[in-house]
């Protein structure tokens, strides 16, 4: 199991400069990647975006790229001069102050092959960051798996206590109903009338179908927790089904002890749902 939340950083030094890439991920319905940084190469950024998207599978990733060229890198003087002239021309047209050399350097940059030179170190730093973020997500995924196993065991325990308690309601209800009706009409209730009323009420309060479906969903949960990634979407769907059955059973509970167990069941399912939202 792998979590959608993680952090990874990579740093590569080369003769051309230093590349640093930081990748941070959080939970998200799909794979969403945002790239920010010093590169002005749309094609390279798109390649990085695709690579991160394939790596994370699911989640929202923020990629920060820093590229610090070596001081010995050659400045393209002709290019910087041309940029400065264009900036000066534009400034004159709009009545702005004349540009500074730093403005031309920022716009013209260093050699025209800067992005090509940076691509190698940046891709290498990205690989380091992705390897570390995988390790980070695996560690959190292991903790999530342990939490799911505990929650599944808790759900099994509550489910096991629900069945006998639900079945024990009918005899007690029969006695209460007989007493209430006898008191209301002032005479003994015919057995066949009482049996009919008890049967109707038992059908209305019966949660055996809900318990059967809950058991089936818990079996599916056990199988899912033994599988490899990705299981996040299936896990979220399964928690919805568990919640639906728990809500129906709770609505039919007319007993304080049974209602308390249904609340315990729904609390555990809500915790399961909350954790499932962070699984790849």
How would you characterize the overall build of this protein?
This protein has a four-stranded mixed beta sheet with strand order 1-2-4-3. The protein has helices spanning about 40-55, 75-95, 100-110, 115-165, 170-185, 190-205, 210-225, 230-250, 255-275; strands at about 5-15, 15-25, 30-35, 60-70. It contains nine helices and four strands. Helix 5 crosses helix 6 and helix 8 (about 230-250) packs antiparallel against helix 9. Helix content is about 65%, strand content about 15%. Strand 1 and strand 2 form a beta hairpin. With about 280 residues, it is an alpha+beta fold.
Question: How would you summarize this macromolecular structure in one to three sentences?
Answer:
With 280 residues, the chain is α+β, with helices and mostly antiparallel strands. It is 67% helix and 13% strand. A hairpin with a 2-residue loop joins strand 1 and strand 2.
Structural key phrases:
280 residues; alpha+beta; four-stranded mixed β-sheet; 4 strands; 13% strand; elongated
The chain-level structural class is alpha+beta
Q: What profile does the largest beta sheet have?
A: 4 strands, mixed
Q: What is the strand arrangement across the widest sheet?
A: 1-2-4-3
Assign an overall shape.
Answer: elongated
Distance between the termini: 8 Å
Beta-strand content? 5-15%
> Treating each run of at least 4 consecutive H or I residues as one helix, how many helices?
9
| Element-by-element helix/strand order | EEEHEHHHHHHHH
Poorly predicted sequence stretches spanning 5 or more consecutive residues: none
């Amino acid at each position: 199991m792998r979590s959608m939340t993680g952090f990874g950083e990579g740093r590569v030094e080369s003769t051309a400069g230093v590349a640093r890439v930081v990748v941070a991920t959080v939970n998200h319905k799909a794979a969403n990647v945002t790239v920010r940084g010093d590169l002005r190469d749309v094609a390279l950024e798109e390649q990085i975006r695709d690579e991160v998207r394939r790596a994370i599978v699911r989640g929202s990733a923020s990629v920060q790229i820093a590229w610090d060229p070596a001081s010995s890198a050659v400045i393209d003087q002709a290019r910087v001069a041309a940029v400065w002239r264009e900036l000066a021309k534009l400034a004159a047209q709009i009545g702005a102050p004349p540009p500074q050399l730093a403005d031309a350097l920022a716009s013209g940059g260093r050699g025209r092959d800067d992005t090509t030179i940076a691509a190698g170190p940046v891709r290498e730093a990205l690989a380091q960051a992705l390897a570390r973020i995988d390790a980070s997500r695996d560690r959190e995924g292991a903790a999530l798996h342990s939490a799911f196993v505990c929650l599944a065991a808790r759900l099994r325990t509550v489910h096991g206590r629900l069945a006998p308690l639900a079945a024990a309601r009918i005899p007690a209800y029969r006695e209460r109903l007989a007493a209430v009706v006898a008191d209301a009409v002032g005479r003994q209730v015919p057995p066949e009338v009482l049996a009919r009323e008890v049967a109707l009420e038992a059908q209305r309060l019966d949660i055996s179908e809900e318990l059967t479906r809950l058991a089936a969903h818990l079996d599916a949960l056990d199988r899912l927790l033994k599988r490899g990634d990705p299981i996040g979407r299936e896990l979220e769907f399964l928690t919805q089904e568990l919640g639906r059955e728990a809500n129906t059973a709770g609505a039919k509970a007319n007993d304080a002890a049974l209602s308390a167990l249904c609340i315990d069941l729904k609390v555990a399912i809500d915790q399961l749902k909350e954790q499932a939202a962070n699984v790849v």
